[in-house]
Amino acid sequence: MIPIFDGHNDMLQRLVAAGPDAARLWQQGDGTGHLDLARARAGGLVGGFFAIWVPSPAHPDEAAHLHQMENPPFALPLPPEITPEAALPPAFAQAATLHHLHRAGLLTIVTGAEDLRATIAAGGFAAVMHMEGAEAIRDEDALHLWHAMGLRSVGPVWSRPTRHGHGVPFAFPASPDLGGPLTPAGRALVAACNRLGIMLDLSHLNEAGFDDIARLSDAPLVASHSAVHALCPSSRNLTDRQLRQIADSGGLVGLNFASGFLRTDGRRLPLEDIGMMLRHLDHLLSILGEGGVAFGSDFDGALMPREVPDAAALPRLIAAMQDHGYGDALIRRIACENWLSVLERTWR
Ligand code: ZN
């Protein structure tokens, strides 16, 4: 089986909600969601990024928003900013749950590239602690504390305004060029992450913020879970100009499996044709080259394609890549090796 390393999942939400049953939920699953250790093993998944993410309060028009996302065009409003005081307790609970699974021996929180390779080689499950939207990072002291807790990847924003910058609102069709540049706090966060060797994740950033990080950061540019704007003009997808900037930095894009970011019509309905995932991979390869493309599933955070409904179905995507003519070496790079390489060049 081809080993797979994944750039993004939102399972920590489900694990925290499970309370004392978190370890059992991770080991065996509960018949819902997209990811657990049993389905990871069945699909060849050997590790991935676990996102710490603070949900926005439910919007009164949530049902209407879902209806709009199934019926583009749409342009949803950005949720309000979340203060560090409000973000810290849920972020802490998610980090604590990941450490609980680590202590129970059910996964390994990896903090270095050697550690990552050794965990995978030993047959363990490698978890990278990621923060999607840095609301819980009040200042550089807090960033150092999070680093000491194992944080090795930070997205300065989710799709929300923050003290660091501006996330893209969910919109289709739309350019990612919405909102202003990074704030002074956002620029300081980039410098501090560079100093600590924490990966900066460009997914969810607007174009002005993306350009700021491209100019300021000394690390390869990475978008952990994004797709191709030329094929699906969602505000969340990357334009060819952005893909070329990532390529120039020796960086990487993890293909997001979210149906609404893959379908040419942008509808938030299950993607019927797995071939569309190959079209996105082909396009990414044409600009980023064989070393710049990987996976960023968004398991437990998005609506999955019909043929890849969960982690256990990953071999179907691998088989589709084989049928499409990708050789074994290229598939192994996209599935795992490219992530290991970019992390080796980023962490220190
Ligand atoms: Zn996301």
Helix content: 40-55%
Q: Which fold name corresponds to the CATH topology?
A: TIM Barrel
Please give the CATH class: Alpha Beta
**How many distinct beta strands?**
11
What is the mean pLDDT?
97
Q: Overall 3D geometry?
A: globular
CATH architecture group name: Alpha-Beta Barrel
The helix tally amounts to 14
Q: Could you please describe the fold and organization of this structure?
A:
With 348 residues, this protein is an alpha/beta fold. The protein has one domain: TIM Barrel (Alpha-Beta Barrel). It is built from 14 helices and 11 strands. The strands form 3 sheets. Strands 1, 2, 4, 5, 6 and 8 form a 6-stranded parallel sheet that branches. Strands 9-10-11 form a 3-stranded parallel sheet. It has a two-stranded antiparallel sheet with strand order 3-7. α1 (11-17) packs across α2 (22-28), α1 crosses α5 (84-103) and α7 runs parallel beside α8. The model has no long low-confidence stretch (mean pLDDT 97). The chain binds zinc ion. The site of zinc ion (ZN) has 5 residues, from loops.
